[in-house]
Structure formats: structure tokens, C-alpha cells
Amino acid sequence: MPRTFKYRLYPNRQQRETLAAQVDLCRELYNAALQERIESYKTTGKGVTWLQQQAQLPAIKEVRPEFKSVHAHTLQAVLIRLNRSFQNFFRRVQNNETPGFPRFKGRNRFNSLVFTPTAFRVQGHHVAISKVGNIKIKMHRALPEKHGTLFLKQICGSWYACFSCAVAPQVFPPSTEEIGVDVGLESFAVLSDGTAIKNPRWYRKAQAKLRQAQRRVARRRKGSERRLKAVACNLAFSFGVWNLRLPQFDRISLRVMHAGKPAVGIRLRVNLDRDSCGL
To answer: Looking at 134, 166, 198, which one is the last position of a domain?
Structure first.
């Protein structure tokens, strides 16, 4: 069963600059490869495969030596990512769905790097990444010995390491009992045995400060440095609220799972008209 193990990274100043430079180079390669595909289709009526673009990487490194500072598999992963975007685009067209043509990536839309298992090695509380360095990592839970691809993602200025692993599914002992879960308004949920789970209402408590952060963004002039700083503060605050709510859901689901009882829920579809609402 595929699972992703996510850990917080603490790179130093030099490592942060290296990661930022590699992200910019990968984003430039993505946009250049997309432009090449568009121009090739306009002139010849045929597209360019990602293997053909991959064969151009050695020549690109000769013309642009700065691309040598990025691992070869990381550059190849950028081209695979673009090829996957085109595959999804054509799949939606064939299925008569709303297609979304691959778009050029700005700085706020490209914030990840991909490393194969040969490009990194986990050493205790550090992860050694090729052409990046030995980065400190917070191992808050054990990582399986066999791990696959490593994804480095930057979220609100912080770096995270996501390891793709194949884990055997955990089998719980069979149980004939069942437990019902009723998601309510006053409390987050009420179990069939009468246990009420309180709702911490993290969003309600942070609404006032979140409103101030959003108004600060609205008052700034578009394109100014002050607006960029206000947007960064707003994103960081919103991510903090989201980071408080997510563990609450995980704890509740794990609590029900470890009880060894199948969970039963009821999904209500209520259609309210103006008469029933008293309007």
C-alpha cells in the first residue's frame, strides 16, 4: 500500500539559497519545455515527446552551466511532470470533460523538487541530498527502511520532505460490533455509545486575526513589495490554522479505527425550499 511520510526540514541559510536556486532552474526548464511543445505543434503540427526533450539536457548543460548544479534525475522529473500534464489534458478531451491546457508556472506555482532513491540518504536526524547538502530533519515518527522517491516541498517559507513508501496494510482483529458517528453542530461528533467529541473551533477563534491579515493584503498596492510581504503573512497564518484542524480529524479517525469496530454513518440530503425556511 503506497503511503507518504512527511517530515519538517530545517535547512541552513546556504541550503535554502541552493534549494531556491534549483527550484528556479527547474521552473525555467518546465516553462521552456512547454514553450517548445507549443511552438513545435504550431510549426510542424506534431508535438515533442519528453524523451526527445530529455535528450537535449546534456546540450542545455553545456550552454547553461548552472543547470549542472541540479541533479540529473531532478531535471528529468520536471519533463515527466510536464508530460503527465499533457496526458491529463488529452484524457479530459477524450472523455468530454473540461480540459485544462498546461500553463506556464510562476514563482508561486512551482515550489517542489523530486529526488530518486540514488540521490539521497537518510542518516539519523539528517538527510543527505545530492548537490544540496546534509539537511536537518525532524523525525517525529519512524521512517520505513525501504523508501522510494523523495519530494521536497516549500510551504509558506518552510521546507518539508515527503518520502513515498510502500507499507504493508495494518490488519485489525475482526469484530462483530459496530459504532455510529453523528457529525453535529454543537459538538464535532457524537458516537453511538454516547461519547461526545468537542469541536475546538480553531477557525472561529482565528477569524479575527485572519480578517486583519486579509484586509492588510487588500490595502496594499498590487505588485509592491509590501503586498508580497502581506500575502506571505496571510498564507502563513492560514496554513497555521489548517495545520491545527488537520490533526484533529486524524486523531478522531484513528480513535475509531483502533477501537476495532466498523464505523457507520448516515449521509443526509436535505432539500430546503423557501417555505420550509420560513422565507
So the answer is: 166
